[in-house]
Amino acid sequence: MAKKPAKRKKLRILEGSAAIAEIIKTVSPAVVSAYPITPQTHIVEKLAKFKVDGGADYEYVRAESEFAAASIILGAAAAGQRVYSATSSQGLLLMTEVLFNIAGLRLPAVITCANRAISAPINIWNDHADVMAIRDAGWLQFFATDQQEAVDQHLLAYKVAEKLSLPAMVNVDGYILTHALGPVMLPEKKLVKQYLPDYRPAAGTYLDPDRPLTRGAFFGPASYMETRARLHDDLVSAQKIIEKEYRLLRQTLKTPSPVAGFDDGLVAYYGPKNPETILIGLGSMVGTMRETARRRPHIGVLAIKVYRPFPGETIGKIIRRADNVAVLEKAISLGEGGPLYGDLKAALGKNSLNLKNYIVGLGGRDVTEEIIAAIIDDAGRQNEILKFYGQI
Amino acid sequence: MPRNSRHENNKKLNLTAPGSSLKNRTGTWRTARPKTDYRACLACGLCAKICPEGCIIMAAAKSRTGKTPAKARPVTDYAYCKGCGLCAAECPAKAIKMVKDY
Fold first, then answer.
1. Alpha helix locations (H) across A274-349?
2. Any chain A CB within 8 A of the CB of B7?
């Protein structure tokens, strides 16, 4: 008998926040706890509404601050439950202490960060200063280039986090992805369940009155260092698992691929084999970079989709074919330079001499095609390494 | 899960069985040790109640005749006493003195 043709799920035009809230509802964590902060608010607002309307089975715990929200999901995760929270900017900074604890306790929490600038001066628009402040906390860091990828990365984040007992953060650009509408295909619940089964940690590995244990007790100088080394090693080796799980995700969910070109879940490359210039970036500006490169056949665009663990080896293989490399960043380590640029320099060693660093789009300033075209021209010239681009 | 890999997994997750804090003998942190003069001690038990580490227990001493009831007296566990000096500060009979422990 002929197989019935698979029903094609229609693309929907959704706000990024709505798409993320929908997929979290499908993933059905046991506990959701969050504190509203712009531009993340729409996500948790929708999750709260699903709960009130009776369409969701998670417990929605209202918190008095982001510190409390992070602590609530820490506790629930330690009790062996799947958890979710979302935050932004100042909220992420207020969570910082708890974020380090979640990683140190090896809890597979998943948080969405709607990336936003950091005060002062107060600014509610998009850049990557917030996540860069906690990049060393021991979390897996995903960066979504569009709304569809944000949906897919949440599933990938849960899968990898629960497999490796590591927390994961999915970064989506505030407003540009959270508030803008885009084409999204939401995978069916059946397929999501197939890819991401219910979370059932082994008995005796979570807090349970029937099986008392201590998690993350006092570790003195004789044992603390080993826990950090283990956490680092596990994060580094997570790259292989992410690649594998990303392949499986593509096969299972059949959501549209974000880019025609090389894409292993860690990085995505679009462009010619031997480009004159490669543009590297994180998050939504990669879309504009690809659009700019579409009319310039000698330009390649490399999106870094997983920033921690840092896929330095894969990046090295791709960019060594280019004459010039422009690293575009929406963040700056003040007094040093772009954090991604620093990581690339360290990972590539003597192969990184052609790298130049462009700080763009801070505090929500548009990163336009004109700016990117000017950067392409500049990347080939002999002049200073670090520049702020797009100043008026 | 086989025994060895379970052990490895617990290590990775920093899991420990109950009672592990007993392995951490905090007595080495001490720079001053409380010394109790049992002739002055009233056996009121205040030191045992206020010790933040729970290091003082009121233990029944044998009476000379071997008959009970014997007067209980505070016994400090120096393996864990951090030498904070709260017992000495609060003793109503001034029976506890802090002496140098290094």
1. 285-294, 312-319, 339-348
2. no
